[in-house]
Amino acid sequence: MDAVFTALADPTRRRMIARLSRGSATIGELGRPFSITKPAVTKHIKLLERAGLVRRRKHGRIHRCTLETKPMQQAQDWIERYRKFWQQSLDGLARFLDETKPEGEDT
Amino acid sequence: MDAVFTALADPTRRRMIARLSRGSATIGELGRPFSITKPAVTKHIKLLERAGLVRRRKHGRIHRCTLETKPMQQAQDWIERYRKFWQQSLDGLARFLDETKPEGEDT
DNA sequence: TGAAAGGTTTACCATAAGGTAAACTATATA
DNA sequence: TATATAGTTTACCTTATGGTAAACCTTTCA
Fold first, then answer.
1. CA–CA dist B38, B59 (Å, integer)
2. Is A107 a domain residue?
């Protein structure tokens, strides 16, 4: 889970994911939109693989990448679990109590 | 968005968020479950604030923290957007093509 | 008026990210 | 058989994380 959120924390990798969501791509295709060198692309893909978000298949000298759905699903589940909690609590009594209990706010 | 996913990438911070989803808490309360020093707790909270996930109100010497829903919602929206895309594409034709087009897989 | 309690700040350390240039491996092709 | 192409590896740099200890500021309270 750490690795998944770490992978999503970089804008370049998020754009790579967006690209892959529309179909598989090679390493070169994934790196082309960005003005970064090839080793940088290699590192990003490796990080995405380490998070389980991307799978690679080698065909000759070409590496074709595809997305894996499971880790992203788990990340979404984590968020969803707690989002539900606080939406029900913060919109209701808990928020009222938190806001009104202490009177002397200085910020 | 970078900051939000970065904040979620650490297990200590995720547990702090889980704690906050059940109601507001002080800095001390948030750090107590972990065997880390006070400066470490301060840093985690700061990072959560920087991501907009946590809001702090000072009452005397006590700092009371609450969750903010918006950034988490945005993070979830980002995931949801692309998850939809690839679930519809990978479960269907695109995945079929990706898997079958190149014959000589060596991995 | 002290001293304790809640937090922060200031160094300081180790490791991971994100980037580069240069050299390298392996496959395809003229 | 050269040479170009796709991608990786190694070595290096800078900045951000995650942690500590020690000193500090504020507020509370005996």
1. 19
2. no
- Predicted confidence (pLDDT) per residue in B86-105, tens digit: 666 555 555 544 444 443 22
Please check whether residues A46 and A23 belong to one and the same domain: yes
- For A47, the token pair is 């990080």
- Residue B105 has what pLDDT? 28
Strand C: which bases are under 7 Å from protein Cβ? 5-11, 16-23, 26-28
Number of independent structural domains in chain B? 2
Which tokens is A90 given? 């913060």
A27 touches strand C (CB under 7 A): no
Q: Do B23 and A94 count as a contact with CB atoms less than 8 A apart?
A: yes
Contact residues, chain B, for A90 at CB < 8 Å: 66-67, 69
**What 3 state SS string does B28-43 have?**
HHHHCCCCCCHHHHHH
Q: Which nucleotide is nearest to B32 (CA to C1')?
A: C6
